[in-house]
Design goal:
The complex is a heterodimer of chains A (224) and B (252).
Chain A (H helix, E strand, L loop, with lengths): L1 H4 L1 H36 L4 H15 L3 H15 L8 H31 L2 H9 L4 H16 L1 H14 L11 H11 L4 H30 L4
Helix pairs in contact in A: 2-3, 2-5, 2-8, 2-9, 3-5, 4-5, 5-7, 5-8, 6-7, 8-10, 9-10
Chain B lengths: L11 E10 L2 E11 L4 E5 L6 H7 L8 E6 L2 E2 L4 H9 L1 E4 L11 H11 L5 H14 L15 H13 L5 E5 L7 H16 L3 E5 L3 H7 L2 E6 L2 E6 L1 H6 L4 H10 L3
Parallel strand pairs in B: 3-8, 3-9, 6-7, 7-8
Antiparallel strand pairs in B: 1-2, 1-4, 4-5, 9-10
Helix pairs in contact in B: 3-4, 3-5, 4-5, 5-6
Classes of the chains: A mainly alpha (224), B alpha/beta (252).
């Protein structure tokens, strides 16, 4: 592999995927937190919260991620001058994480909401009957069961998120896809090899993730 | 209300309660009062509103008009006040509704720990004692799906008792059970009744109504048709609806 035997190229390859990993990690945590809150809003008895949750999902789920990432860069940063770091790479990284999180949270919310629908109504009734409040019922009884029901779909959301992080390359972050483009430009004779190595790296990480989530889904399934 | 006559005051009072499901009038001007320590068994044909009546008492069903008071207070509409009221009213469901992701012991201790803020160790001790009382202490660490229906229902009774409720509501507690498990649940309920628990029981178990109830209430078409002591009711039903109902179920 002549391209990757050059240490400079290899370092670029590693740093590209490090950005991918960091963006996936940070966005996954934020999207999960946001998604849980949104799902709670969507099933809450307060109309304003339900409306807010529905509006969030409808807006961000139906807007192309590229547009959201562009908005984060041109809207938040260039126009509103919201700067998240003095380091240009870190700034783009966080702008990307914001875009990825608000977008992915919509999918996490909908996955959880479908999970809530798998929890029999009697579970929440029994929880209310012993005096748990609405939020306790949701946190202690409904969401834990809903989450176990949607582990596999959440795995798919995580995999999609990981691949989606490459879109942050469009605002200049040197993540894996940008690095790949650069290596291809510099090594026009090894296009196929470069492509296969990058695609293969994604597959090598994500295929086990898919199986891990499938295994977890079985293991943690609630028996009824 | 003066404290000294609190014990004479009925614990549960329904006053002209009406409830609609869409066009369906499921409760029609229902008046009912349940005294402290009294065991009231509600019987009647399917769709007569028995379950709705039972569920309205802890506001799992809202009502459209009328008033329900529990222990001298009108049922709160929602929020923490309603949660507090519900913690004083034990409820046992037809389908058990044990928390599927928690062990039997966790099911029993959840309310005391989260609602009553008891120390986990204390709640655990009381929980085990309650499981002992309903005869399933050896199942404490299993999950609901691993237990038989009868065991699950007894666990559900223990869960309700763990809150030290002022009254217990039973919504057809044996209807989902295999016949051979009905007895073990009724035994627990009978011993509760004997210990002086205030109980409202919706059931088709006429044997239980006969020997454990202080009063039988017969409902049909959303109306409370008649009420009497069980001996009197089963021997001399006054209304035609009750006569008809009893003739259908007691001939076999």
């Amino acid at each position: 592999m002549p391209v990757f035997s050059d240490p400079a190229n290899f370092d670029m390859y590693v740093s590209g995927f490090m950005w991918i990993l960091k963006m996936t990690g940070a966005s996954a945590v934020l999207a999960l937190v946001l998604g849980v809150l949104l799902a709670a809003m969507r099933v809450s008895p307060v109309p304003v919260l339900r409306w807010f949750g529905a509006a969030w999902v409808n807006i961000f789920r139906n807007t192309p991620l590229t547009l959201i990432i562009f908005f984060c860069y041109f809207g938040l940063y260039a126009t509103l001058s919201i700067s998240l770091s003095d380091d240009i790479d870190l700034n783009n990284f966080w702008l990307g994480v914001i875009g990825l999180s608000v977008y992915t949270a919509a999918f996490v919310c909908e996955a959880l909401r479908s999970g809530i629908n798998t929890v029999p109504a009697g579970q929440a009734e029994a929880a209310r009957a012993i005096g748990l409040t609405f939020s306790q019922t949701l946190r202690i009884v409904v969401l834990p069961q809903a989450a176990r029901a949607v582990i596999a779909p959440l795995g798919s959301v995580l995999i999609a998120l990981c691949k989606n992080t490459t879109i942050v390359g469009t605002i200049g972050l040197l993540e894996a896809s940008n690095i790949m483009k650069q290596l291809i430009n510099d090594n026009g004779d090894q296009v196929i090899l470069i492509f296969l190595v990058f695609a293969g790296t994604f597959a090598a990480v994500l295929i086990p993730v898919g199986y891990l989530f499938g295994w977890l889904a079985n293991r943690l399934a609630v028996k009824r | 209300m003066v404290a000294s006559n609190a014990s004479q005051e009925p614990l549960i009072v329904l006053d002209k309660v009406n409830k609609f499901f869409g066009d369906l009038h499921v409760l029609r001007d229902v008046d009912l009062s349940v005294g402290r320590g009294e065991v009231v068994v509600v019987i009647g044909p399917s769709g007569s509103g028995k379950s709705t009546l039972c569920r309205a008492i802890n506001r799992l069903e809202t009502i459209n008009s009328g008033q329900i008071t529990f222990d001298g207070n009108t049922l709160p509409a929602e929020g923490r006040a309603l949660a507090r009221l519900r913690s004083d009213v034990g409820m046992v469901f037809q389908s058990f509704n044990l928390f599927a992701h928690k062990t039997i012991l966790q099911n029993v201790t959840l309310g005391p720990i989260k609602v009553r803020k008891e120390k986990p160790e204390e709640a655990r001790k009381r929980g085990l004692a309650l499981l002992e009382r309903v005869g399933i202490a050896n199942q404490a660490d299993k999950y609901p799906a691993q237990l038989s229906g009868g065991q699950q229902q007894r666990a559900a009774i223990a869960r309700a008792l763990a809150m030290q409720p002022k009254a217990m509501l039973f919504d057809e507690p044996t209807s989902a059970l295999d016949p051979e498990m009905v007895g073990e649940v009724l035994d627990v309920m009978t011993s509760l009744a004997r210990d002086g628990m205030t109980m409202v029981v919706v059931t088709h178990e006429m044997g239980f109504a006969r020997h454990a109830a202080n009063r039988v209430v017969f409902m049909a078409d959303g109306q409370l048709v008649e009420q009497a002591e069980p001996g009197e009711f089963f021997a001399n039903p006054r209304s035609d609806r009750a006569k008809d109902f009893l003739s259908k179920i007691l001939t076999h």
